[in-house]
Amino acid sequence: MKTRGKTLMERYEMEKLLGKGTFGKVHYARDLESSQGVAIKIMDKDRVLKVRLSEQVKREITTMRLVEHKNIVCLHEVMATWNKIYIIMEYAKGGELWDKVKRSGRLTEADAHRYFQQLISALDHCHSRGVYHRDLKPENLLLDENGDLKVSDFGLSAFSESRRTDGLLHTVCGTSMYIAPEVIRKTGYDGAKSDIWSCGVVLFILAAGYLPFQGPNLMEIYRKIHDSDFKCPNWFSHKLKRLLYKILNPNPSMRPSIQEIKESTWFRKGPREISAVNKKVLSENATTTNAARVLPSRRKEIAHEDMKSLVATNLNAFEIIALSAGLDLSGLFIKECRKETRFTSDKPVLAIIAKLEDAAKALNLRIRKTDNNTVSIQGRKEGRNGVLQFDTQIFEITPSCHLVQMKQTSGDLLEYEKLLEEGIRPRLKDVVWAWHGDDLQQKQE
Ligand code: ADE
C-alpha cells in the first residue's frame, strides 16, 4: 500500500522512503504541528508476530528509550494501529556514513578518528546501561545536519538480562562481515567485547574504504575472522595500525575494553593531521562520558527489616513503554491523568529504599512497605485535602538499572508537588540517574 502523502494519526505526514531496515521500511515524515522532520520505521504487527520477532521489536523500543546520547538516534514516540507499529525517531539529515565513505573511496584518518571517537562515546554510554548494539556496521551509522555521527537501528541489541546464567549472550546475530569470532564460534560471548570488535571493523572500513575480512565464500570469510587474518593498508599511521591489531584480537579477553581504547594514543591524539575542530570534539566527548560515569560514593545499604523483602518487579518491555511518558502506546490505553513521577537509577534496590527512608525521616513522614512491592510514604498531619500520601514502586529493567515510579494516592496535588520538588527530589539525587515523566505532571496544572 502507498504510504507517501498519507497522514499518520493526524500527526505526521509521510513523505519519501529513506530505506529498508531489518524489520521494515523507514520513511521521512513531517510533524504537522512543529513542521519538524522525523524518521518513521513502520513494522507490520502480523509479520513481527508470525516470525516471532516481537521480542526483538520490544527490545528495540525499550533499548532506544534507555539510551539517550547525542550520538544515538533519539526515539520520539511509538504509535500502534491494529496491524502496524510505528517508531517515530529523530531524522538524521546527513544520511548514511557509509554513503560518504563510498563517495570518497575512503575517509581521511582525521575523519575516521572523529567518527570513531563519537562511536566509542555512544557505545560507552550504551554499555554502561547494560545495552549492547550487536549489529554495528556502517549502514547503521548515520550523520546529522552537522555531520556528527548518529548510531541507529537497535533491532538486534540485547539487554544483559537475556544472558544465560554464564553471563554470556547466546543469540547468533549481527551481519557476517562485522561479527566477532566468538559469535561465529557460538560459544556464548560478552556483548561489550563483540561490539568492540565490530567497532574495529568499522574503523578499518572508514579509513581503508574496504572490508578487512574478504573472501570468495562465507567459509573463507569466517576463517579469516576466526584467525583475525587481515592486513592494514600502508597509508594507515603506525598508531592506528597498533590500535586496530589490538581491537581485532580473536580472543575477546585480550581485546581492549572501551576504557583502554580511550586511553590509547591514537584515540587520544589521533593522526598527525588532526585538526583543532577534532580536538574540540574529543574534549566534548570526554566531558559527556565522564559526566555519565560519575557515581556518587557508595553508601552502606541499611534498610528497615520489612523493606528487605522488597524485590524489584521485573518489567517487560511493553510495560516499560506503557510507563514511558510521551509514548502514544500508553496514551491509547490510559485515560486518566496520572500524578506520577519516575526516575531511573543504576543503584541497587536497597540503596534506593535507604534513600527513601532517609528522606522520609528528614521530612517527618511515615514510611512503610505495603503489597505489590510498594513503599508507601504518608504525611503525619491533615493537609488542605486530607493526609498526603504517595506510593513508590521499583521495577527492574536490567540488573543494573531500575525504574522507580512515584504516584500520589491521596492529599492535595500542590502540596504533593511542593514536597516532591523541595523535599524528596533533592534528597534522592544520589540514587537518581535521570528523572522522567515531568510532562505528565505539567498537563495537570
Ligand atoms: N534511515 C534509517 N533511519 C534513519 C533516520 N533515523 N534518519 C535518516 N535516515 C534513516
From TrEMBL:
Domain Protein kinase: 12-267
A single MF term (Gene Ontology): ATP binding
EC number per UniProt: 2.7.11.1
Catalytic activity, reaction form: L-seryl-[protein] + ATP = O-phospho-L-seryl-[protein] + ADP + H(+); L-threonyl-[protein] + ATP = O-phospho-L-threonyl-[protein] + ADP + H(+)
PROSITE patterns in alphabetical order: NAF, PROTEIN_KINASE_ATP, PROTEIN_KINASE_DOM, PROTEIN_KINASE_ST
Residues in coiled coil: none
BP-aspect Gene Ontology terms: signal transduction
Keywords: ATP-binding, Kinase, Manganese, Nucleotide-binding, Serine/threonine-protein kinase, Transferase
SUPFAM superfamilies membership: Protein kinase-like (PK-like)
Residues the entry annotates as binding ATP: K50
InterPro entries: Kinase-like_dom_sf (IPR011009), NAF/FISL_domain (IPR018451), NAF_dom (IPR004041), Prot_kinase_dom (IPR000719), Protein_kinase_ATP_BS (IPR017441), Ser/Thr_kinase_AS (IPR008271)
Required cofactor(s): Mn(2+)
Keyword Repressor: no
Entry superkingdom: Eukaryota
Annotated ranges, domain NAF: 310-334
Family: Belongs to the protein kinase superfamily. CAMK Ser/Thr protein kinase family. SNF1 subfamily.
Function field: CIPK serine-threonine protein kinases interact with CBL proteins. Binding of a CBL protein to the regulatory NAF domain of CIPK protein lead to the activation of the kinase in a calcium-dependent manner.
Identification of the protein by name: non-specific serine/threonine protein kinase
Upper classification of the organism: Eukaryota, Viridiplantae, Streptophyta, Embryophyta, Tracheophyta
